[in-house]
Amino acid sequence: MSEFFFLGCSLLTLVILGLHSFLLKFSVFFLLIFFSLYSFNLEGGKVLVLIGVFAVLFLLGPKKEEQTEVPVLSLIIVFGIFCLISSTNWLSVYLAIELSTLCFFVLIARGSGYSAEAGLKYFVLGALSSGLFLFGCALLCGIGGNVHLAYLDLIINSKQTFSDVCPPVGYILILGALFFKLSVAPFHMWAPDVYEGAPTKIVLLLATVPKIGIFSLLIALGLPVNSLLIGVVFSLFVGTLGALNQTKIKRLLAYSSIGHMGFILWGFESGSFESLQASLVYLFIYVIMTICVFSLILGFHLYKNLLIEFSGVSRFLPLFAVTLGVVFFSIAGIPPFAGFLSKWVVLLSGVLSQSYFVFLFAVFCSVIGGVYYVRIVKILFFQKNSYLLITIKALRKELHLNFKKVFLVGLCLYFILFLFVAPHLGFFFASQTIMILF
Amino acid sequence: MGVSFFFIFGAIGSGIMVISALNPVFSLFWLVIVFINSAVFFLLLGVDFIALMFLLVYVGAIAVLFLFVIMLLNLTDYPPAFFKREADMTNYIPIGFLIGVFFFSEASSSWFVLGPFQKENWDLSFPWLIISHHNIEALGQVLYVVCCCLFILASFILLVAMIGAIFLTQDKAPLGKTQQLLGG
Asked: Its membrane topology, per UniProt (chain A) (predicted)?
């Protein structure tokens, strides 16, 4: 609890510094390094959060609002997610989730085009899921008589083994609310619309940071395993079939993130040390790949975010096309890249825990999912420009790559290409994180 | 006991009147009566704080907000859907039934769980740890002493709401120069 005080004081300093906008970048980086030094020996999830937010702060442009309000709000999001990771009772979990959700609503709604609709969708559905969450909390507090997470776990999981607990209704409601935030499949409806409408930098933040926080909350809770499995199967299915017919890049990435959430959740579902480690490695690689693909999309400056705008890029920008192709191959899980490593580890841990049907289903889904990733690579390399697109492309600048974006892409690409050669770093990191839990 | 039954049935009856009143403004007033009835019922159960919250938040803020929205929408020209022939309200029965059964089973299950320990009287204020204090006083001691960090966290949410309101309503970009027409 004293941690809250500490973080709060740092954040207040940050907001006061942020009012002088010329000091902002320095104060941001100073305080983030400060945060990271402080939290490195606590939880690995916080380090992942810091990686995601570093990327977003790195990508922010010279516009006025991106110099003042957006960094402050994204740092408040970091504060909320840190509180979420280190919180031990239902009240602080709720407040931390609400803090980050409200910040995200403001950031999403402040875009152009469909962003008002996207923000409103995010806000209304977030309010609905918060209602479910609070109702579940009330029911669980009625059973357990206390607001602490561990207290309830002692009562319910007292005699049984980990997997044959019959979850009470409150757990199901809370799990539904957390699935809303994670965009896991029965509750995924908001994700494609919000991803499409929101500004791309905010989508990068939305696709990485809150998911890390909520996954660490899911580890901290005693898990009702069977209901997690429903989320796994549905989100693998939806993430595969939903993305097949998409024409916009951000909607496609939304469905792809739903599929990835299914994989990560499967690791949590198995519940053993190896599978938790595997899904943390998956989470790390997912964050890296998301940062890489979004910074490439930001650099390309799409006109309407359509997939066919990438057609024939390899003719005039070969290096860009090769990079994007490598990233999409990695997301699809083609062997020499990091995406294959993560999928392999999760599938291996699933086989070791003897859930063969889900294993076959996951392999089937990722094979089908490979189709639409490879389709993008085909568009990049082998598709001709249509005449309409040529006129559009003639009217604008081609690339918006500056040093920051190239640096970020290069750093992520280093991990994507060479993590398979020496994956010890990621596994060490993940096992250190898991050791704290057990 | 008879007094509390009076308020329970008052709440249910005025709840029925909310959905069957012809004028939306009247149904809103019935809603206010529902809230007042349930607040008095909570007061009789011994939970003063929730009763006061009902009066302050629901009657004071939300009902006024509803009234404002209804005045803005100008719904008085339309007949309510309940009386139209073509409006078939039976569609809503299954989902309403399901939600009602769910809520009722949850409420009754908590009663069954607590039942064996205290059979003589169902008093909501009984299992409180700080029985010697007044209701609101006990809550304040928990909120400002035990949960003071959470209280600060809640203040951060208010700060975000303030920043967000300013950030969303300020102008996005300076408008282009427009021609000013004479007499326009």
From this structure: Multi-pass membrane protein
- What does the pLDDT look like over A23-57, one tens digit per residue? 455 555 555 655 555 554 456 677 777 778 878 87
Tokens 């299950």 belong to residue:
B109
In a domain, B126, yes or no: no
Average pLDDT over residues B105-109: 75
Give how far Cα B36 sits from Cα of A72, B33, B66, Å.
Answer: 42, 5, 16
Let me know if residue B118 belongs to a domain.
Answer: no
CB of B160 less than 8 A from some CB of A: yes
| Parent domain of B162 | 139-171
Q: Which residues of B touch A11 (CB under 8 A)?
A: 156
Residue of B nearest to A19 (CA): B163
Measured distance CA(A60)–CA(A353) in Å, rounded: 43
d(CA A327, CA A412): 9
pTM: 0.81
Last residue of a domain, one of B111, B129, B152: B111
- Give how far Cα A331 sits from Cα of A256, A286, A371, A416, B146, Å: 9, 8, 12, 10, 46
Sign of the CA dihedral A127, A132, A137, A138? positive
Same domain, B37 and B97: yes
Same domain, B83 and B162: no
By Cβ distance, the residue of B149, B164, B172 closest to A102 is B164
| Segment A273-308, tens digit of pLDDT | 888 888 888 998 999 999 999 998 888 877 777 887
Q: Are residues B165 and B92 in the same domain?
A: no
Cβ of residue A79 closer than 8 Å to a chain B Cβ: yes
Indicate if B71 and B162 belong to the same structural domain: no
Which residue among B160, B167, B172 sits closest to A99, beta carbon to beta carbon? B160
Which whole-number Å values give the CA distances from A211 to A324, B46, B138, in the listed order?
A: 24, 42, 37
Whether B184 maps to a domain, the answer reads no
Same domain for B97 and B145, yes or no, is no
DSSP class of A367: H
Given the cut 0.85, state whether the ipTM is greater than it: no
- Residue of chain B minimizing CA distance to A109: B168
Residue B40 lies in a domain: yes
| pLDDT for residue A293 | 93
